[in-house]
Every structure is written in C-alpha cells, then in structure tokens.
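--- STAGE predict ---
source: upstream dedup step, 1 unique chain passed
mode: sequence only
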Amino acid sequence: MTNNFLAIFFALASALTIAWGTAVRHRIAEAGPSEDSALLSAVQQPLWWAGLSTSLIAYGLQILALGFGPLLIVQPILVMSLMFTLPISALYDGRRIPVDEIFWSGVLSIAVAVVVLLGRPVGGRQSIGIHHWIPALLVGAIAIATIYRLAGRLIRREKALLLGLVTGAIFGYVAVFSKAVADAIGRGGFIYLLTQWELYALIASALLGTAIQQIAFDAGALKNSLPAMKIGEPIVAFVLGFSVLGESFQVSGQDYWWLSFAFLIIIVSTVTLSRKGLGN
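--- STAGE serialize ---
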C-alpha cells in the first residue's frame, strides 16, 4: 500500500532515533581509549548497546517507511537525522546551539522539502531480478574494500574521513536492501521474507556498517567522519534507487535545475552543519 504521508512520518521517526544512537555512540568513543582496542572498550558499555538498540529500531522504522513509499522519498528525509543530532549533542555537551546552525538546519529542511514535493518520487520495480543486483554488488564491494584498505594506511583526520565515506556507502546499500525487504513483506508476508536473500544481506550490511561507523568515530573528530557518512549514504542510495530499484522523479524542463539545486543545497548544508555543530 502506497501512502506518502506515512512514509514521511516513519522516515522522520527513523531520523530521530538514528540521531540519538549516533550521538550516544560518538560520546562513548570520545571518552574511550584512542588505541585499537577502542571498539572493544565501547561495546563493553551498556550505554553503547542502548545506542545500538536505538539504531536497530531506526532500521525497523525505515523499513516501515519504505513499505509505504519509494526510497527517493524516504532517503532525503533520513538526511535530516543530522538536524536532530545537533540538539542532542548540544544537550550532552551542555552548550547552546548557535544561530548559524539553526539557519543551516532551516536551509536543509527547505531543500529536503523541495526534493520531496517538487520531485514527486515514484516507485520502481516490485520484484528485482538478480541481473540488476550483481553489477551493483560487485562494484560496491570492490570500491568499499579499496577505500577501507586505503584508510588503514592513513592517520586521524584522513582516516576518519575515508572510514566515514565507507560507512555512508554501506548504509546506502542498507537503504536499498531495506526497500527490497519492505517490498518482499508486501508481496508475501514475513514467512516469505525468510526465504529472500535480501533480508540476510540487510542484516549483514547493517552490522558491518555499524561496526565501521564506530571505528570511524574512534579514528578522529566527528567533524571529519560525519560529513562523509551523511553525504555518502544518500548519494549511493540514490544511484542504486535509480539503477537497481528503477525509481524516478517526476520532473521535466526547468524543474530538473531546481531539483539539482536542492540536492546541492542538501550537500552544502549537511557538510556545514556536521562540521559546525559536531566538530571538536
């Protein structure tokens, strides 16, 4: 059943829970050791598991949203999780949110609204053949593995940046697998879903993305990794949404320019907010 209002509602709920989980786990990373045992130290803290549990709830809300609407509606709204992360992080740090961060939050909101309302995204294929998946999976695996290996040779700022990009790319695949899982539930229910490989790909990629995200947090200041995460995810998700899912925007003529401009504003405002609000 298609219901864009419910898709937007559950996407906003998912963005809020993502924000809390991100702020909590980065808070732990900042307080923990900086050596290679940082991830092990983090997972030994109950609050880290609380943040992870919240992230898992966010995945569930995301799947609900995707069950009601196309990925191209849900994904731009998930970018707004950064806006929710700002006040949560400010609360943890005991500081006020500066006026310029409020301004860029408003700009981001307007740009996302333009993408959703002007673009009027529509769904694509209900059943995705393996021939659509294989090229995307092969290219993604090679690119992600290459960037991850390169990050291992760098230190602090550059390492955190590349690991953030890897995390964003993986979560871009998580978004597409989530849409495939939501569609599978709609076609045959939960028993049918258990026979579909996309479910297990979703679980594996979500766990991998969460682990690498924590490593990226440990590698350096959040201002170095978060922009890459927040930009990498929608870019990869949009590319896969078009190429694998067959989704599209209903725009023509000059509307393409306005839509492209809105995407540019989303990128600029996301990078600006993540560096201003969460940098060290």
